[in-house]
Amino acid sequence: MNTVRIGVIGVAGRGKLASYAHSDELNAQIVAGADPDPDARKTFNEAYGRDAATSGNYRTVLERSDVDAVFVCSPDHFHEEHAVAALEAGKAVYLEKPIAVTIEGADRVLETARKTGSKLYLGHNMRYFPSVLKMKEILDAGTIGTLQAVWCRHFVAIGGDAYFKDWHSERKNTTGLLLQKGAHDIDVIHWLSGAYAESVVAMGKLSVYDKAERRTGERTSKVALKPENWPPYSQNDYSPTIDIEDHSMMMFTLANGVQCSYTQCHYAPDYWRNYTFIGDRGRIENIGDSGSCEIRVYTTRSHTAATPDIVHYLKPSSGSHGGSDPAIVRSFIEFVRDGKIPNTSPVAARYAVAAGVMATESLRTDNGLRRVPAVDPETEAYFERGQR
Ligand SMILES: NC(=O)c1ccc[n+]([C@@H]2O[C@H](COP(=O)([O-])OP(=O)(O)OC[C@H]3O[C@@H](n4cnc5c(N)ncnc54)[C@H](O)[C@@H]3O)[C@@H](O)[C@H]2O)c1
Predict the structure, then answer these.
(1) For ligand 1, is residue 123 a contact (CB within 6 Å)?
(2) In a mutational test of the pocket of ligand 1, which residue from 96, 178, 290 has the highest number of ligand atoms less than 8 Å from its CB?
(3) What are the distances in angstroms from CA 157 to CA 207, 213, 227, 272?
(4) What is the per-residue pLDDT across 347-368, written as a single tens digit (0 to 9) for each?
């Protein structure tokens, strides 16, 4: 394959990510798109050619023989349908997280990739965050000994803008935010710890956005992340239906015995994740997760909030999501063209969803322990061989 010719399903919002692929340097070109929103298609056509996006129906992209690879950037509840159809059409697929909104759906995407031999890539861009890569490097070097525990606190200031005004606010579209948003962090915890969740337990509730003012009809404004949209009750255009939680806490044990917790709050005033990885010889913690941030390493005992033994100061990288978006798109093109193995993993993406689904079930029922079902071993082996 010479030039990689790309189609985009869901061209606005996250679909803009594909623009990083449209470059001479990567020898890749966007040639087609589909989106039900005419305004989104118009903007896309202005960027990539008059007839690039002619339809709201994603099948028009898949029917084109001049499309080699497809970015699936539609809302979560379409991922399974769009990815399965694209793989069956023989396209290489960049599928945004989450892989699907159910465990069955995620397994169907993996199985379709295996059955068709079409290449599947999952858009877990946090695996290209400089802060995550630095923490992985420190863990792999053994600086804090053998990892025992991981905690992640996720503060989501944009909750009111991005999760409670549109399709995200309904279970039928996302299952819940432990999966929708938490899939990123569960995946990071799995990757850096070297194992997947085996059992989970969770609690959570909706206690702020349920009291906020709802709009009655269709949404007229577009999603906008604005600092002035604060505090949550100052807004009045929330979704008519909100049945997801705005605060969730899950605890989980990985197959290698590492114990983890992940907490997520959608009415926090700040927006970042704070991870700590604790081994039997020290602790790592990030302060800030993108742009200018610090990775602090503690290896000396103290009796107060200690000065870290080592601090890694990370500088901002260019490109969205802390520079991870151009990096992940490059890796996708290299995977499609040269078979280069990326940081991301479809099987890991499925385990992130499975842990999120089981935690959500625990949270909404008895807060009891749930087992995370395993992936079919032959399917897992296919992906471990690099999809060969
Ligand atoms: N990895 C990340 O950092 C990251 C960041 C943001 C969003 N996402 C993911 O990207 C996906 C899209 O999120 P978003 O925030 O851009 O949502 P959005 O609602 O802002 O945009 C989705 C786009 O898909 C279009 N669309 C809706 N239904 C469609 C259909 N049936 N066929 C084709 N297109 C359709 C919409 O018109 C819109 O243009 C989600 O799955 C989300 O989880 C990932």
Answers:
(1) yes
(2) 96
(3) 16, 18, 9, 8
(4) 999 999 999 999 999 999 999 9
Share of the chain above pLDDT 90, in %: 93
221 pLDDT higher than 80:
no
pTM reported for the whole predicted model:
0.97
What pLDDT sits at residue 233?
Answer: 93
Compute the distance between CA of residue 362 and CA of residue 354 in angstroms, rounded to an integer: 12
pLDDT-based confidence at residue 1 (cuts at 50, 70, 90): low
Compute, in degrees rounded to 10, the torsion defined by CA atoms 70, 72, 73, 77: 170
Q: Which amino acid is at 23?
A: S
pLDDT of residue 27: 96
* Most informative mutation of 58, 74, 78, 165 for ligand 1 (most atoms within 8 A of CB): 74
Q: Where are the domains of the chain?
A: 127-324
Domain range 127-324, CATH class: alpha beta
Average pLDDT over residues 181-195: 98
